[in-house]
Every structure is written in C-alpha cells, then in structure tokens.
Design goal:
The chain is α/β, with parallel strands linked by helices. It contains three helices and seven strands; from the N terminus they run E-E-H-E-H-E-H-E-E-E. It is elongated, with a radius of gyration of 17 Å. The structure holds the ligand Nc1nc2c(c(=O)[nH]1)N=C([C@H](O)[C@H](O)COP(=O)(O)OP(=O)(O)OP(=O)(O)O)CN2 and zinc ion (ZN). It comes from Oxalobacter formigenes OXCC13.
C-alpha cells in the first residue's frame, strides 16, 4: 500500500451546545486537516505528475475548493443551536456554515471525509482512494475517519 498525506490548516469558530464544560462557549480553533490518499504513482515520462499518486498541490487545491475555503474563518454552527444561529444571522455578511450535526471533531472529520471522497476518487477515475481524514482540533485532540470506518448514522 502506498499513500500520500497532505496537511492543510484553517481557522474556524464553533461551540458544542450541550457540553457541560468550557466547550459550550463560543470559541475557535486552528484546525489541522490531514488528507491521506492511496494509489499507484502515475507513470508517464514527461508528465508533470510522473511518479506521483497525486501532486500535493492538487491535493491542496481540491480540498481548498470543495471544503476548506468554505470553513476557513467561518463559524460552524449546529442547525439546532438556535440562539447562536440567531446571533450570527444578526451580523451583516457574517460567514456562517450551518451543519446538520454538532461541530465536534468527530463530526467535522466525517463531513470532510464524505465531502472529499468523491472529489478525489473521481479525479483520476477509480485509481485514487481516500484512505483517511484526520482533523486536529487542538494539538492534543483529533478525530480520524478511515475508508474502513462504518458510518452508523
Ligand atoms: N470527543 C470530543 N471531545 C471534545 C471535543 C470534540 O470535538 N470531541 N471538543 C472539545 C472542545 O471543543 C475543544 O476543542 C477541546 O478542548 P480541550 O479539551 O480543552 O483541548 P485542549 O487540547 O486545549 O486540552 P488541554 O487539556 O488544554 O491540553 C472538548 N471535547
Ligand atoms: Zn472547540
């Protein structure tokens, strides 16, 4: 098995509304995203991507386009968190992303995985596999979704 991993970082605000401690407060993180792809290196002399599973710059560009640009400097809010949604709605032109689940590291990792899977796997036909998405919420805390994980929702 041959994999590559690209790391991207973005800033976003969130809160965990039901949390019994600090995380119910509005706060933010510098999230770190690790994208791991499996595949065979492209073999074509003279091609820019010769020897690569996917050019790291393409891994970044696709993630930026389809996910990171939407979440960066946004507030990620759970759709049922009405007080915060109303507050955010009162701010003119505020960048808000409403999610269908609470913005924990686990849920963000699952959303990122589901969003990016088709993006990468459609890029080179069936040759690429999105193996895992890892999201660090802090340097000490992260969640990971792997291709073998079962989404039990
Ligand atoms: N399983 C989860 N637990 C927690 C989540 C989460 O998404 N999934 N999120 C939070 C908080 O939002 C916050 O991101 C974590 O804060 P904290 O535990 O304080 O993390 P630190 O790395 O800053 O912890 P230190 O103890 O200061 O190292 C909480 N739990
Ligand atoms: Zn947090």
């Amino acid at each position: 098995m041959l994999t590559i991993t690209r790391k991207l970082e973005f800033d976003a605000g969130h809160r965990i509304p039901d949390h019994h401690s600090q995380c119910r407060n509005l706060h933010g993180h510098r999230y770190v995203l690790h994208i791991t792809l499996e595949g065979d290196p492209h073999k074509k002399d003279g091609d820019s991507s010769n020897g690569m599973i996917l050019d790291f710059s393409e891994v970044k560009r696709l993630a930026e386009t389809h996910l990171v640009s939407h979440w960066d400097h946004a507030f990620l809010v759970y759709e049922n968190d009405m007080p915060v949604r109303q507050f955010l709605d009162s701010l003119p032109n505020h960048k808000t992303v409403v999610l269908d689940r609470v913005p924990t590291a686990e849920n963000l990792a699952q959303i990122a995985f589901d969003t990016l899977k088709d993006v990468y796997e459609g890029f080179y036909g069936n040759k690429l596999v999105l193996k895992s998405i890892r999201i660090y919420e802090t340097p000490n805390c992260w969640a990971e979704v792997t291709a073998d994980s079962v989404d039990v929702r």
